[in-house]
Amino acid sequence: MPSEREAAGRALAAVSVVPALALSGWLLAGLPLLLLGSFRPLPMALLGGAAALLLCAAGLRRLPATATPHRWAMAATLAVALGSGVFNGLLHGEQLIVRRDPSTYAQYAVWLARHGSLPIPVGDFGGPDSALRFDSMGVYMTGGGIVPQFMAGSPMTYAIGHWLGGVPGLLLVPPVLGALAVLTVAGTAARLAGARWAPLAALVFAVSLPILYTSRTTFSEIPSLILLFGGMNLLLDARARLGAALPGAGFPSAALAGLSFGLALLVRIDGLRDVLPVLAFAGMLIALRRTPRVRPLPEGRLGVPLLTGLVVGGLWGFAGGYVLARPYLKYLSGSLIPLLAICAVVVALTVAGTTLAPWIAVRGRRLLRGAGWLPNAAAVLVVLVMAGFAVRPWVQTVRRDAVTPEDRLTADFIEKTQVANGLAKDMSRLYYEHSLDWVFWYVGIPAVVLATVAAAVLVRRLTRGGLTEEFGWLLPLAVIGWTTVTTLWRPAITPDHPFASRRLVPIVIPGLVLLAVWGLRWLSRRIARTRWFAGRPGRSRAAVAAGALLLAVPPAITSIGTAFTPVNRGEAAAVAGLCRGIPANASVLIVERVTGDRLTQVLRGQCGLPTARVVYPQKSDVPLRADVLRLAEAVRRTGRVPVLFAAEPEQLMAYGPATRVMSLHTRQDERSLVDPPNGTWSLTIDVWMTELT
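RE: above sequence
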């Protein structure tokens, strides 16, 4: 009969892996159904629900306790997660009008929930015409129709909310996922730092502004985080099963861990970079089994199931990208091709290392015996890397020449944002040299310092031969270190905040929080052994409490400026009113650029109307009147009513009287380039319509 502490430990272990297991099952079943055009509520409830339940059953069978915490630790962790979900649910955003990525994900999810298939048909406008344009912001035109930007994993997840509660239900899925992410990260902290430290990790993580930001609207970063840190939790559970000699010896958990890591590619193609250390780690585990001259580690038996799950999940991700998001991957080819090349090198090195494992082990032991300097050098290197990022703004200014049309749009956006921020105009700036400053804003300098110290200590222990006692940290440290360095070096995102902060969400912020909490535990134990603290538990507890405040307060202060202000409120009602104001048998022709970017897919997806943009001649902002009238006549021949849309009534004056069908006044995210965001900006959207009878 397990004790109350053991039951609490197993409960904490369970709630921190169920999100990743359920999400993995949903995506595993969802992609084939979507490719078959059958992503519908009933098939997904049966197949997706069954897959999620089966994976949960396999992952939770004879689950070892993460630790033996007091019940208060479990209750506090659940309270933080619940508070996060409720708080973000009450203040969630409503980004539906396509302006940036969240609304693109939302419209993608709306289409999947309503139609269950891709590509999106263009609709009947009376035949092909060179003046018709069907693509817009967030969607690409292909030979077979229209395909949305981005990978399909997040929209398939957000579609659940639409099935359950329409657009309002869809908009509440992000806060739920944010709460599950809090539990997932807390579970990783419990496994690596101790269950008593899980509530602190959950709190510091939950109050960070980027986590609040991405937990309130339809981004892909939170689902990606759940899969990545859930994979770490499952692999740590597999290792715990080995140590406890439980049935199955951890093989199912290792395979499920690999699957969770691999499916991160179906959510974000950037996940390929995040899981590269997992591939190398799996190869290392396999190599351990082929090295008889070295004292074998039991973890070596986990290599094959981990690699198998990773390959299956990765194939799902690549298949989804190739079939459903090929134009998006082509757009990213400048960064994706080098990443694939790096992946190929890692695969080749992993295969070579596994093949030559016995020879490398013998040579490596000889080299390590003569390299007593290596542990200290590795620890110093960790500190120097972070110091390098700290001084980077004084020695480098990151710029990019606008070569492609997309680069020119970004450069123009940056220049306009500089004007709004009161900065000197320089459209070539990317501000990437300030990436560590972003981390300072969102987790605080004390957390970054503690995380750096913790990483240095752990690296020193591992290179000193501490695989046995610190083996559990090897993969998390590799993933956190690799992704943090590569992300800080090249964030690859427009640098306005809070939007750019999303780049830190999947790995950087939770990873640094995890390291900082472990660092606080390590420091508190060292302090407790000093003369002034020894035998005085009250002083030790006070020191820990002070450290906890240093971790939790700075990110909370940064978040206060925006935490209590929801953005884009009113968009759901405005779009619903827009759809009601259009004739049911209308075909929409948009004759103005901004409205075309924002509403083409909204009208097509939420209003269910054939929608197209009218092409402008070169060096003009308005289409030819002859083109508009010709297209309108072609629409009439189909039996539908031609309707024109624009942002100003003057743009429709030549075609008849205009009626305002949307007048939205709301708040939008701030766009801050050199300071942490501390407020919101106003946003006004007007839309006018002319019905051609």
